[in-house]
Specification:
single chain; alpha/beta; 6-stranded mixed beta sheet; 4-stranded antiparallel beta sheet; 10 strands; globular; binds adenosine-5'-diphosphate
């Protein structure tokens, strides 16, 4: 089941002197329930793609669909609604509110979502049941990122987009955070798209899309992960 589809997706940054083709005509499909990883050298277009899929940025040319909804046909207000209704984001930095506990940080989202899970349930999913009433400063970096993941999934989004979620963590902690993303993907069946340089993710992913110079170089399908459990 296709969730995202792009057709000749192109993003050009025109700095005056040079034109940078951050995305140079990308055709891809992303499928429901899959843990999909974007890999490739720095500058190859991964973040640009993630931002356009998440409705944070506009394409220069080409088209993008989220199911039947054409994102490239929406203006800012429509993209805002799309993000609110369908997308959870996880970034390198956790952006937790320091004066609120873990539970209260997640409740900021669950209070306004249409069909949320209880904040405590979201924190249980990421293994933080014992940290509900801790403040961010009382948590490790890995734990703070797990709170951010709980916040992102608590509204039950159809898509979870993660841009370098392990970028600020040491490699051991980073692997633990990737394991949490894998667990969330298993438990909720959320299409999860991850940009990371952490090689461990390749074993966990259903599909790895390799970027080079704004284009897809090749796609690896992990047949072991795709096989029914
Ligand atoms: P990746 O995520 O693979 O590191 P990016 O999508 O961040 O790659 O960047 C792709 C290309 O677009 C790079 O050459 C980068 O320098 C350029 N780029 C990204 N954002 C901007 C911007 N706001 N202005 C100009 N160029 C940009
Ligand atoms: P406007 O240009 O008036 O702000 P929008 O870009 O917000 O219009 O939306 C254009 C159309 O796309 C709307 O009529 C709406 O029905 C549809 N639409 C926008 N966002 C969503 C969404 N998240 N889910 C489904 N349909 C949407």
């Amino acid at each position: 089941e296709t969730v995202f589809r792009t057709k000749d997706l192109t993003k050009v940054y025109d700095t005056g002197e040079v034109k940078v083709f951050a995305l140079a005509g990308v055709d891809l499909e992303l499928y429901a329930g899959e843990l999909t990883v974007l890999l490739g050298p720095s500058g190859s277009g991964k973040s640009t793609l993630l931002n356009i899929l998440g409705g944070l940025d506009h394409a220069t040319e080409g088209r993008v669909w989220f199911r039947d909804l054409e994102l490239t046909g929406l203006r800012d207000r429509g993209l805002t609604r799309f993000r609110r209704d369908h997308v959870g984001f996880v970034f390198q930095f956790y952006n937790l509110v320091p004066s609120l506990t873990a539970r209260e940080n997640v409740q900021l989202v669950t209070d306004v979502a249409r069909n949320p899970m209880p904040a405590a349930e979201a924190l249980d999913l990421v293994g933080l049941s014992h940290r509900l009433d801790h403040f961010p400063a009382e948590l490790s970096g890995g734990e703070q990122q797990r709170v951010a993941i709980a916040r992102a999934v608590a509204k039950r989004p159809e898509v979870l987009l993660c841009d370098e979620p392990t970028g600020a963590l040491d490699s051991k902690t980073g692997i633990q955070v990737l394991e949490v993303l894998r667990q969330v993907n298993d438990d909720l069946g959320t299409l999860t798209v991850v940009i990371t340089h952490n090689a461990e993710i390749r074993k966990m992913a259903h599909r790895v899309i390799w970027f080079q110079d704004g284009s897809i170089n090749h796609v690896d399908v992990n047949s072991e992960r795709l096989a029914p459990a």
